[in-house]
Amino acid sequence: MSQERRKPSRFRLPRCPRSPWHAPRDRTLFIRPAAAPRRMLLWRLYLVTGLCVLAFAVLYLDRGGLRDAAREAPGVIDLMYFTMVTVATVGYGDIVPVTDRARLIDAFFIVPVRLVIWFIFLGTAYQFVIQRVIEEFRMKRLQRQLRGHVVVCGYGLGGSVAVRELLESGVDPDAIVVIDPQQTALEAATALGVAGLLGDPAREDLLQQARVRMTKAVIIAVTDDATAILLTLTVRSIAPETKIVVRILEQTYQRQLRQAGADVIVPSAKIGGLLLADAVQSRYIVPFINDLLSTRGRVTLLERPAAPHEVGCLSNTVPGAAVVGLVRNSRLLSFYEDPACTIEAGDLLMVIQSSRQPGEARG
Q: Can you say whether the dihedral through the CA atoms of 264, 269, 270, 275 is positive or negative?
């Protein structure tokens, strides 16, 4: 019997034994009204009016159970008056329920209507007065802390992955602000501990509230390339020195984004297509690249200044790292085009190195 050929095992890189990242605490979600304030006020006014009309109708049908101090049975105007003073909890006592049914109606119908109306009044006062004051206070406190932070415009698939990767790489949640028009998206973002602003990221006032001028970088991960171009122009007009990283779907918009002021353009569709094509001919390239780009991988690709102990070494002899690129005086020297050179102070290195701590056993 011929020996069975073993199928090659699926390629897996060993992972660091790290516990998953958890948000240290919940952050405040800064809410903007989903509807126009005038529309919300009108809707609540209609609701209160409808409840008052309903209460009047019920009292009118049972008007025989009410007695006026001046006359036997109250009229229509008396019932309107009694409805309003009862709902408003004034209760002068000149009109009173005298039958058991009238008292039950007052206890189990009029009182709940009164509570609902007062809850509407209190909710309106809270939303349009108290909440706005609290929100502005929290916003000003947050703005005082924002400096050198990262603003993420759009919390879809790309934006959420970017936020998690920033957190995994050690970025403080206090230094990340997410702007998205979807309430559910911001709830998911703030659950990670970052701050959120509800609204269109292309609005200049929201970008000003996020203090884009003081940011370290702005990540634009919206779902529409035209919006990404407009947003890039807006951010660049507010913050001429801020680094702008844009994710696009169509590679044809790269020239427009460059002209708009984007510093780094990530064509997600092209990168995904290249990995798909590589996966046809190879088994190990795609998982290796995924591990290389992920912060939690066992091997990482870093861009960092040359360390003091690396100065004087040849670029191909750096201990514990593979130097794939060296930037000197804004010129890139790559290992595949340029010969190895001596590392100097101030050089910027692009290295592939293990994320395993020294002395850590191999998994």
A: positive
* Burial readout 215-232 (b: 16 or more C-beta within 10 A, e: otherwise): bebbbbbbeebebbbbbb
Phi first, then psi: give them for residue 198, nearest 5 degrees: -90, 120
How many angstroms separate the Cα of 340 from the Cα of each of 145, 228, 314?
A: 44, 40, 6
**All structural domains of the chain:** 37-142 (1.10.287.70), 146-271 (3.40.50.720), 298-356 (3.30.70.1450)
Helix (H) or strand (E) run with residue 247 in it:
strand 243-248
CA distance 307 to 310: 5
Separation of alpha carbons 188 and 87, rounded Å: 41
pLDDT tens for 9-30 read 444 444 444 445 455 444 544 5
The confidence score (pLDDT) of residue 317 equals 85
Of 355 and 300, more confident: 300
Q: Tokens at residue 242, please?
A: 């801020």
pTM of the model: 0.60
Q: Which residue has the tokens 């407009």?
A: 230
pLDDT in tens, 118-169: 888 777 776 666 666 766 666 676 667 778 899 999 998 889 989 998 988 8
* Cα 54 from Cα 189, distance rounded (Å): 43
